[in-house]
Automatic annotation (TrEMBL):
PROSITE patterns: IMP_1, IMP_2
Organism: Streptomyces aidingensis
GO molecular function terms noted in the UniProt entry: inositol monophosphate 1-phosphatase activity; metal ion binding
Keywords noted in UniProt: Hydrolase, Magnesium, Metal-binding
Broadest EC class assigned to this enzyme: hydrolase
Residues that bind Mg(2+): 78, 94, 97, 222
EC numbers for this chain: 3.1.3.25
Pfam families, per the entry: Inositol_P
GO BP annotations, alphabetical order: inositol metabolic process; phosphatidylinositol phosphate biosynthetic process; signal transduction
Signal peptide as annotated in the record: none
Coiled-coil zones: none
Keyword flag Magnesium: yes
Protein name: inositol-phosphate phosphatase
InterPro entries, per the entry: Inositol_monoP_metal-BS, Inositol_monophosphatase-like, Inositol_monophosphatase_CS
């Protein structure tokens, strides 16, 4: 497959099949190595941001496998940064989303791959490593959990009677009065869970297990695949902060909301509050 060829090489369905195959293999490798000693190191100047040998090894595998499947494609990953390509396709790769959970043996870890064509994210795959649950979707493609398409917006506030929001705000090491105030106000409106696994949070919103998710201090590899899933499910993914003219997945914050009027209203409120929180000063 040629990464620079129009048509089949840029077809979201073809790119999604590649992403899913590589994500599943990466998750298998992570599970196989999870029983051994896992030593984490903090990244320079980022006390709460951890990395392990598994992060770099899985990213190296994904970059090699994805570019072999789509020659000329570029890769932007969390650990190795960018790998330039010659065509219009870019892979956004988070090899181990939830490294802190992985190190502690908490089963909230996923592999995430998003595919962009000329800057527009068109497909995404998230694999929950320890549940071996695969979420896929994209432009013109339905949300699927495993092999089955999700039949409309399941679960959510309509089933539970109260909305559920997934967020890691306030972030460790970045706690101030405004962020604590945001969380306190949110807790008056919704139940809140902190997963520390952004891509999985987005996959769960897409699947209807939560009504909304939001975060700050994120990167495109955190959100590209999950944003594609939310849109495939009929939900809304909104960038917060950053350059309005740039790719939305490059924004440092986001709000994702499922389909339906209640989720939309919650998403509107979250966007307003998070935008104010992200504003400098």
């Amino acid at each position: 497959m040629s990464g620079g060829r129009a048509g089949g090489g840029e077809d979201p369905a073809v790119l999604l099949a590649v992403a899913e195959r590589c994500c599943r293999e990466a998750a298998r490798r992570l599970r196989a190595g999870a029983g051994g000693a896992t030593r984490a190191h903090t990244k320079p100047g980022r006390r709460f941001d951890q990395v392990t040998a598994a992060d770099t090894a899985i990213e190296d595998y994904l970059a090699t496998a994805l570019t072999a499947a789509v020659p000329g494609s570029a890769v932007l990953g969390e650990e190795r940064g960018g790998r330039a390509g010659t065509g219009g396709i870019t892979w956004y790769v988070d090899p181990v989303d939830g490294t802190g959970n992985f190190v502690r043996g908490l089963p909230l870890v996923c592999v995430s791959v998003g595919a962009a064509v000329h800057g527009r994210v068109v497909a995404g795959c998230v694999v929950d490593v320890f549940r071996d649950e695969c979420f896929t979707g994209g432009e013109g493609l339905p949300l699927r959990v495993g092999p089955a398409a999700v039949p409309g917006p399941p679960g959510g506030a309509a089933a539970a009677g109260v909305p559920l929001v997934l967020t890691d705000v306030p972030l460790p090491g970045r706690v101030d009065r405004a962020s604590v105030g945001f969380l306190a106000e949110l807790l008056e409106r919704a139940e809140v869970r902190r997963l520390y696994c952004t891509a999985l949070s987005l996959a769960w919103v897409a699947a209807g297990r939560a009504d909304a998710a939001c975060n700050l201090g994120i990167h495109p590899w955190d959100t590209a695949a999950g944003a594609a899933l939310v849109r495939a499910a009929g939900g809304r993914w909104t960038p917060v902060g950053g350059d309005p003219a740039g790719p939305p997945e490059h924004a440092p914050g986001f709000v994702a909301a499922g389909p339906g009027p209640e989720a939309k209203a919650l998403g509107d409120w979250l966007t307003e509050r998070l935008t104010a929180l992200a504003r400098p000063g």
